[in-house]
Design goal:
- There is one protein chain.
- This protein is α+β, with helices and mostly antiparallel strands and 371 residues long.
- The protein has 13 helices and 18 strands.
- It has three domains: 79 residues, 3-Layer(aba) Sandwich (Rossmann fold), CATH 3.40.50.20; 68 residues, Dna Ligase, domain 1, CATH 3.30.1490; 188 residues, D-amino Acid Aminotransferase, Chain A, domain 1 (2-Layer Sandwich), CATH 3.30.470.20.
- Helix 1 packs across helix 10 and helix 4 crosses helix 5.
- The protein binds adenosine-5'-triphosphate and magnesium ion.
- The site of magnesium ion has 3 residues, from strand 15.
Amino acid sequence: MQVLVLGAGQLARMMALAAAPLNIKTIAFDVNSESIVEPITQTKLGSGLAAAIEQADVITAEFEHVPHPVLDACQASGKLLPSATAIKTGGDRRIEKALLDKANVANAKYALIRTRQDFEQAIEYVGLPMVLKSTLGGYDGKGQWRLKEASQVDAIWAEMEQCIASSAAQAIIAEEFVAFDREVSLIGARNQHGEIAVYPLAENVHTDGVLSLSTAIDEPQLQAQAKQMFTAVAECLDYVGVLALEFFDVKGQLMVNEIAPRVHNSGHWTQQGAETCQFENHMRAVCGLPLGSTEALRPTAMINILGEDTLAQEILSMKQAHIHWYGKDKRPGRKMGHINVCGNSPADLQQQLQDIAQWLDASAFPALHQK
Ligand code: ATP
Ligand code: MG
């Protein structure tokens, strides 16, 4: 079995690492250079989409911003899972919001903006403060504005107008600002028979719009809500593969912020913390194999390594810390790797996180030092 992943970054790499023990071979297609590469070593294997599709038994994606002609060609081959429709939904906040409404899951009140008049009407309808997001191309908090008071309208409109003008398909979504208590996410898998398995929720801390810390939590009431919403969304899309839902927790009531039609950064903890990791379960789902157990093995958290390419050697000696580098060149703020930390109990996990914090720079790992 050979799986082609659209995108050749760390998610493709970790899918390949998880697939190998199942005798599933993975190749990756870099959509920018059109190169076919080995996802772990980045060795070039060939080039061109047609050749990549030809070699694959199954095609999947590591990100939702795949150019539509690429998705359409893969869909036409009959090998793409999840479907082009599901991937496009994750890449366009307009379609995503319509899906959330169709699936009848709670999400922030919103309005669509293409003109200054739309903007004025959105302010009336949604109210201030509001969050404004480009409908296409946003990630890690990029392509967003926060509108708190009327005096900011002209300056923000000037930037939004440029963004809208960049592409005929581009627009802005205005969302009510949700005063959440915390952010959580649910990662789960659905296979071709419609079977669903979800992991425990993770609680997520973002720093400057980028995920910095994810901790698996055991909260049955919240978990049940999240699973119901996951099932509604996954069934609406007839989804196959791993899917992530990001939520706002507002006093114990969940609202979906966004979906990601792929393995997700807030699910990396499953590599050490769950019976089967998200990467293996994605490969199982798209290859038509039974899903692996999503049960948690022990309390686990994940720390993102942003913009650093070295860590203190002492961390390697810690019994319950596991480092995963992505083999990428260092750039400020770039996701370079992550550390999964396990504990024997939730309190022990917090202790482990404090122990590891002493080896990690407070400015580079603020979420850990705030604990
Ligand atoms: P990523 O790809 O990293 O998940 P993104 O760029 O797709 O991020 P969002 O997840 O929509 O964007 O937003 C980034 C962060 O901004 C959220 O995790 C949340 O902290 C905050 N945020 C987004 N929407 C709202 C909202 N309506 N109200 C309050 N905060 C929000
Ligand atoms: Mg997000």
